[in-house]
Amino acid sequence: MEDFADKLAAKPLSYQRAYLGSLLPNHVKSGNLEKYYQRLTDFNFLMAKIQHSEFGVQALIDDFDLVDNSEALSHPEYNPEKVKAINLIRSVLWMSADILDRDKRQLASQLLGRLLYFKILEIQVILEVAKKWKAAPWLRPLTPCLTPPGRGLLRTLIGHSDSVNAVAVTADGKRVISASKDNTLKVWDLTTGKEEFTLTGHSNSVCAVAVTADGKLAISGSDDYTLKVWDLITTKEVLTLTGHKSWVTAIAVTTDGKRAISGSLDNPLKVWDLITGKEEFTLTGHSNSVNAVAVTADGKRAISGSSDNTLKVWNLTTRKQEFSLEGHSNSVNAVAVTADGKRAISASFDGTLKVWNLTTGKELFTLTGHRALVKAAAISADGKRAISGSRDNTLKVWDLSIGKELFTLTGHSNSVNSVAITADSQRAISGSWDNTIKVWNLTTGKEEFTSEGHSNSVNAVAITADGKLAISGSSDNTITVWSSTTGDELFALTGHSKSVNAVAVTADGRRAISGSWDKTIKVWDLITRDELFTLTGHSDWVKAVAINADGKQAVSGSLDKTLKVWDLSIGKELFTLTGHSDWVKAIAVTADGKRAISCSSDKTLKVWDLTTRKEEFTLEGHSYSLTVNSVAVTADGKRAISGSKNKTLKVWDLTTGKAEFTLKGHSDSVKAVAITPDGKRAISGSRDNTIKVWDLLSGKVIASFTGESSIACCAIAPDGVTIVAGDESGRVYFLRLEGMEALT
What we know:
Oligomer: single chain
Structural class: mainly beta
Low-confidence stretches: none
Strand content: over 45%
Radius of gyration: 28 Å
Largest sheet: 4 strands, antiparallel
Distance between the termini: 9 Å
């Protein structure tokens, strides 16, 4: 189907350039501001500009920046309501620039997912046009499901080819310097979001980076045992500092820019003269590797954190240890100090942050809330807030006056390794194992939107056979029932004492079954909303459940390496299937109820005959060293599709037991898979934050949607176009596959 961009492409290049390029500044300069407003709220114009080879997303963002032009602000046609709409659209472009650079077809989904919250006329008009875009297959959000402009993610910076280990921001807030496992540092312009240049010279992973207060020098530490000093004006290496006997893991620089303090896996800290490039002295006292170091604003003290579970406070004048801070039960990974030098905050493998009084050497309080070890910490210039990054893929913002969490920032698809805060305390910059740097808005303001749903990861979703209800299970221990048509939360089912990992629903839509970390399976009546009974027998967490078509039997899989088959009429175990050598991660049952297919952390899938109660055969072919996370089976029972930690899906012939082909396109572990009722398409969810739709005839991705966090589960409705998915931040996405006619 030909759309506006196609029609424009058929015009002469001179016409295209005039329409997409030079007219916008002319509208502002000539005073034709109304035409400027119309153009920037025209979905067709936005799509055409980002698709054009000579323009793209950044050129479009530059157009929006003209609204702040002084001539525009003072013009009689200046319209605050329309400017608000334009600023919201601009914010979405900023937030989604990295996504749109990779896949321009996601413009409509990003606008809808982030702007459906707003009732402004101009916003509603552009969204109505966006909904009708049919030029290519795409996934349309049915509800507001992405972070709206205002608070949260501002922009993602992409360029590193491996994990981002550390970030530093200049005092004027204009530049970020990132250090990566790809052996390089990159310097980024925070105004445009563009990479300025790359610093190369280290021969191994760059673990740490700091920048001088004047923004002229950066100092990096590497697994090659060296520190390097870089001139950010000339982009040249100035000095190499040698002396450590192992990886350099931490760096801090004094405010006057004359000294650097480094920590290493070799346990001592070293103090360096940045003028001469010489080591001044060594600080010894830690009994294990030094992972973090900070220095007070007056340059008189350093605070270090170590794998010996302690922090130490050092006097840089006397070159002696003042005292040790003890309280963490595991390695200290990060440390930051307030501007007045009176308090420090530490982050630990024990999953907590601690705030310390540097005068008394006493712990003030502990901050808890992260679901995994804490890798990074920073403190705002005014000392009122701290921000932490964790291996749970999130950042948390804390109020240091009351010791409470303010809010959580989600968006990284892997561990957050580092964080920095701009001097105005308005923005944070984080680096992650997902190879990206993200820029966040830290202003809290007034909460304009309330979010329904889960308060923790959504681990499983199922849809009733009539397509009217969706059921989700979460790490918040609850099951939630939703309207699939409106996305409204209808009611919650409570009873599990731990995380709900799996859900399934009977074909008549009257009962749901759930599996939990509490080692139990519960059967629920969706009409009365009552728990019918609990099935016990597994000796470890229940990770998977499936129900056969007649609703009489269920199959469960557990970390105890077994599958169990249950009679749902009497609530009793019928038999146990053994054969996997590691966790059972997911289960699918064929429509005739005769076979079950299970996948496991032992890297295999197994096909079971539920009549003979025997294993038929094992499916092997995913990477020998990586878990198989998910499996689905076609309605005719002839094919299975599995998703693996090796970033791929495999399509299997269940007659021959052979892999037909592999689906490649995700950039991280595939966590979930579902198949349309006609067996022609598959839907997958991944730790790369995307949901992808695959054509099983061509083996190609035909549509993609990028969410806010790692996608943990997905399901497809009987109509073959409505998709429900859940992510690790607690969001449930209701999406519709549009534009399929463009393929015909």
